[in-house]
Design a protein that fits this description.
The chain is an alpha+beta fold. It has one domain (about 50-224): Glutaredoxin (3-Layer(aba) Sandwich), CATH 3.40.30. The chain contains 7 helices and 6 strands, in the order βββαβαααααββα. A hairpin with a 3-residue loop joins strand 5 and strand 6. The two termini are about 35 Å apart.
Length: about 220
Amino acid sequence: MQRRTMLKGLGVLAIATPIAGWMASAGAKKEEENEFLTLPQVIPGDGVPAGKIEVIEFFHFGCPHCRQFESTIAQWSKSLPEDVYFHRVPVTWNSEGLINLARVYYSLNEAKLLDQLSERVFNAVQKERIVFESADVLRDWAAKQEGIDDKAAQSLADMYGSFGMGAMLDRGRRIERAYGVRGVPMIAVGGRYTTSGDQVKNHTNEAMLPVVDALIERLRGKKK
């Protein structure tokens, strides 16, 4: 299920309360027995290839529900049709701990190491209680991972503290605020709809995916 995931039991994170109010979701219409919300206005995609249907998973590495959902959504995303553009946005909620975890995500993404290391990061944060508070911590952790050499570990550290990281964080914040994300995991489809584990009928994150599939089909029909 979706939760706000304050993670009171994890001292590694100092997570701030999410921004007050739903910027995009205010006035959103509940449909299909509350399995998804229709947003009051379409949110334009940022960097979405022409002709593609955007699907966003909002998450963070400190969220236990996101960790449990990781393998399922990773497998699902690999089978998406060519006209779907799937990506993730790590929420930060103006929290230093979550901002640092977002830095880890963007570093892995830029280095094309997400598939290899994302589940390990979830475990490092939630089981090993590693606090990724600096580039040095990320480098030292990565260097100990199977399949990652010192050069790749240093590359991740360089990205963590790079000038370009600020732009990636700013872009993520804009998207997070546009959708008014208050809990994770949450999935947005085509800038028009959102769904979460709390919204679907049997209240599991896995049950979001058939809803997302149906919303993709709905948008594909609108395009025709």
